[in-house]
Amino acid sequence: MTLLIRHGLRGSAVALIRPIFEIFYRAAWIHHCATPNQIEKIKKGKFRFPEMGAMVNGIDKAMGETFFQNFKANSWNDQNDFTHSGRMQVNSRLSRDDLQSAYPDEMIAVNLATTTMVAILVTVILLKTHDRAADGERLESMLAQFELKRPSRPSSPKRTRQASQQLKSEPPISRSPRTPNA
User: Fold this and answer.
1) pLDDT digit string (tens) for 80-134?
2) DSSP one-letter code for 101
3) Of the candidates 9, 15, 28, 36, which has an alpha carbon nearest to the alpha carbon of residue 115?
């Protein structure tokens, strides 16, 4: 994403937000919900993951909280808009007189920070799943110091603040996985 942003390809960069979150949701689902048989099928490329809503519900049920459901509810529609050329993607390409990239710097900065945090959480999951729990916990504690300071869209600061607060709250990966260490 950073490379695309640096080269002025902001639309392409924000289109990657949703796939990054999909990796996060799938990694968390594998970590907390998948059975050994399902993990073997995943490794062989012969597994169809649950729908995203069912996946986040399953993760939260396994963890006894609602972090993933709430986070998806606060961000999924915007992510779909950016990935599938929806309202937000189209409106961010229109200026007053021209069709050009018009993504506010503030929105780009917050979305880059958020996706970076999510990528780090995926790394935490992988470390904890592969017998490197201490490294995962150390990275998780460093992540707790990372803050989002501004809303991603002036028109929707409440939703961005909610998503940011959820990421800054206790990291959702700290509990033991249901799956065996691989």
Assistant:
1) 677 666 556 655 666 566 666 677 788 888 888 888 888 999 999 999 988 899 9
2) -
3) 15
Our measurement of the distance from residue 109's CA atom to the centroid of its chain's CA atoms, rounded to an integer in Å, reads 15
> Which residue has tokens 């399953």?
58
Q: Which of 174, 110, 109, 163 is nearest to 139 (CA)?
A: 174
In angstroms, the CA 105 to CA 46 distance is 41
Closest CA to 141 of 175, 174, 103: 174
How far is residue 132's CA from residue 121's CA, in Å, rounded to a whole number?
A: 14
- Give Cα 35 distance to the centre of its chain: 23
Asked if 42 contacts 62 with a C-beta cutoff of 8 angstroms, the reply is: no
Q: Are 108 and 148 in contact (CB under 8 A)?
A: no
Closest CA to 93 of 9, 11, 152: 11
Residue ranges of E strands in the chain: none
Query: Tokens for 125?
Result: 């999951």
User: For residue 127, what are its two tokens?
Assistant: 């470390």
